[in-house]
Fold these 2 entries.
Entry 1:
Amino acid sequence: MRRGALIGIAAVIALAALVGIALQSVAVDTWLFRQVVRHAVSGGDATLADANELSVLLVGTGTPLPDVTRAGPSTMIAAGPHLYLVDAGVDCARNLQLWKIPLDKIDGVLITHLHSDHIGGLAEIRLQTWVAGRKTPLKVYGPPGIERVVAGFNEAYAIDDSYRTKHHGAAMLPPEAANLVAVPITIPADVTTAPVFDTLGLRVTAVRVKHEPANPAYGYRFDFAGRSVTVSGDTIYDEDLAHAAQGSDVLVHEALSPVLVGIMHDEMLAAGRPRPAKIMHDIPGYHTSPVEAARIANMAHVKLLLYTHLLPILPNQIAIRAFLSGVDDVRPSGVKVGHDGLIVRLPGGKADVDVGDID
């Protein structure tokens, strides 16, 4: 939801409180509620990119660690009017709805790997895109194994699908459109990339990355209107990714601070919490540090490095400074710590990199 709309709603709510207290009238309360709803639903859908523009929206920049300010890992790419979602972390559909993204316009979902935090929101994407007006099954691209994931979500929601079609009617919710359709991507062993599709001026390439034991794991590169974005997925430091991302305008890269996660491990252990401490001990081995991601960005000669999938939780600027320790020595500019709702617009035929917020 746009900031102006939120301010308007807040003003109406404040007025409602004052007038409601003064009059204690059901009629007044109902009228004020109508004004709040009117503000909330007014205006059209958000436009993420012009016809000749590529954009990247950070839908969720969090991790499995609970964080009320960040949804699970998810990134939306807009190539003109065509929308693609990379990963579907928990609450990604909620954020997209709050920002008035036209969910029925999502052309496909690309899953980087099959860890739970990257697929946990896929069921809600399935449902909400259908409810929003999707008329055909939604394609879900991903590494081998995506067939089982998609079949599982389809089966889990099959009974719910039938309820909703009976309730709202097949004209609104056609049962043949409800399902996800798996599109497995295989990268041959002797290469590190493979084409996913090339249509309507958008070329998408899968990039094999290193995230053992989650194997295979992919990143994705998007090329459109002379601009490009590469999304790393989860990976350790990987120079093959730098080669695949060469010349990208934006590199969206995961990042974990070993120092800060190490502190969490030590304090959890000292507090008698060995199970979460064990997880903190294990996870740095298959992620990339902020400094390493900066080196990859330099090797790829990207204009902007966006950190996402941030470990640990970064609640304030002090934590962000600690997270970025050493990055300036490697890459003194062209770096940004991502947050949910950050959008980068890349106009076709230009070199501009316009950074802002969706709301």
Entry 2:
Amino acid sequence: MSKKVDFYFDFASPNAYLSHKVMQSIKERTGAEVNYIPVLLGGIFKGTNNKPPMEQFFGVKNKNEYQNIEMQRFIDRHSLHSFKMNPHFPVISLQIIRGAIAAENDGYLEDYIDKVLVHMWEEPKKMDDPEVIHSAFEESGFDANKLMEQMQDPDVKAKLITNTEAAVERGVFGIPTFFVGDEMFFGKDKLWEVEELLND
């Protein structure tokens, strides 16, 4: 079985943050390589006619409340207590996920993901405000001016669109989604199955 995980990723999802953190320990235990694929969650929703849980389950008595309980259980199970719900949620992630494409092109995608996730879900900021984004990039030690320029590059924009469309074609309908070989797993609660398959 392949020792590589394709991780379809967008900063907009708190579950992507939680999954990224757990994935670090899975990498250590299995020796697997994780291939982060930046995609736009909003584009996936549009391409699959899906909706975010808050909207999907709006009006369903007790459903979203239970989802919150399950999230807290996951946080406690994996000791992810640095997580804070972003008060600006939902944050439009278009600019910072374009930044991920630029960082990938320049060879520092995982470092970019690590540091931008802090600004989204540990020291949460309004990461769809260009001034806030620029300051966060500077704080993280990135070349903020270069990244802000790259986020408007037509090739970067096109790559994000291509990634997102290819994800939908592969079967992705939400974030986080993982593939081990041809086997697809959706959601942070399936990470144990990802690890199990990597150990086969």
